[in-house]
Design brief:
Helix content is 37%, strand content 27%. The protein is an alpha+beta fold.
Length: 305
């Protein structure tokens, strides 16, 4: 029996249906002292912790995203499939709309491999990835909620990811292909800009600290109010500029409902909700795309039988 495992391969984070981690790892030829989130594959040790890799527009150029896929497969096998160790896997995954048409076939081939042996968290796995179903990000996220929105004459969907912001409209349940745009100004661009601004003050700040500040969380060691104000000001400006740009592209958000998807959307939620340029908005959680990939793959497999 093939097991369907859905994964969101974001430039900022890797997500499965139950957890997420940064899209990065450190590699060593010898076993490190810390064994948490440790992957052993083809004689090397990969610590799936720490900072993400730089943004990649084509994730098939090296094995990084394949390696990052193995721990999340192991997690799903343990938690959803009673620790199955020898299985054939069908991946359900996605790409930004701007890359979908050009990259989907290569992205599918990238993952299909036989006789994959690896150890994660001390457990051995022997799997084969027999197929990979690839879907457009954002559109997949709304599929589990399709019946709820299909009667609306016009619905905007904005998926703010790490690298891209994918935007399109759905009209009475049908995707308007002509409306699809993808902007290379995802949340990573905001985080990098803020890091550079603060670096000019002689302070190096981590992405997680910026994110906590944007979320309004109290950071006990963070006493510099001017830095906090800088982060909030740049975030507000980012949201203003994004909404203005979407308005220029014809996405009316004052009178048409808008669904926001992706980790970037959740990070900016309070800034978006409090902006006078939007009307009715909803925010889907961090795993909306993953659930959509899984649903679409299951439907495709049932139809093929």
């Amino acid at each position: 029996m093939d097991y369907i495992i859905a994964i969101d391969h974001g430039n900022k984070a890797i997500k499965n249906i139950i957890s997420q981690y940064n899209s990065g790892f450190t590699v060593s030829n010898t076993q490190p002292i810390i064994n948490e989130k440790l992957l052993e594959y083809e004689g090397k040790y990969y610590s799936i912790l720490g900072e993400r890799f730089p943004v990649m527009t084509d994730k098939t150029l090296n094995d990084n995203f394949f390696i990052l896929t193995l721990p999340t497969i192991a997690e799903i096998l343990e938690k959803n499939y009673q620790g199955a160790k020898k299985r054939e896997i069908i991946l359900a995954c996605g790409l930004p709309i701007i890359h979908y048409g050009r990259q989907k076939d290569e992205f599918r081939r990238y993952f299909i491999r036989d006789n994959i042996r690896f150890i994660f968290a001390g457990r051995m796995y022997e799997i084969s990835i027999t197929d990979a179903h690839v879907y457009p990000q954002g559109y997949a996220a709304i599929m589990p909620h399709f019946n709820h929105y299909k009667g609306l004459s016009r619905l905007n969907l904005v998926d703010i990811g790490g690298y891209t912001i994918d935007v399109f409209t759905i009209e009475k349940g049908i995707l308007n292909i002509k409306s699809c745009i993808s902007l290379p100004t995802g949340i990573v661009t905001l985080l990098n800009f803020i890091k550079q601004e603060i670096l000019t003050l002689g302070i190096e700040i981590q992405e997680e600290q910026i994110e906590d500040t944007i979320l309004g969380e109290s950071i006990s060691f963070f006493q510099n109010e001017s830095i906090k104000a800088l982060i909030e000001d740049k975030t507000q400006s980012y949201v203003e500029e994004l909404l203005d740009k979407l308005k220029e592209y014809g996405f009316e958000m004052k009178i048409n409902p808008t669904i926001f998807v992706g980790g970037g959307s959740l990070l900016l939620q309070r800034y978006i909700e409090n902006n006078a340029k939007v009307g009715y908005v909803e925010f889907l959680d961090n795993y909306a795309n993953v659930r959509g990939y899984e649903l679409l793959a299951k439907q495709a497999i049932i139809k093929s039988r």
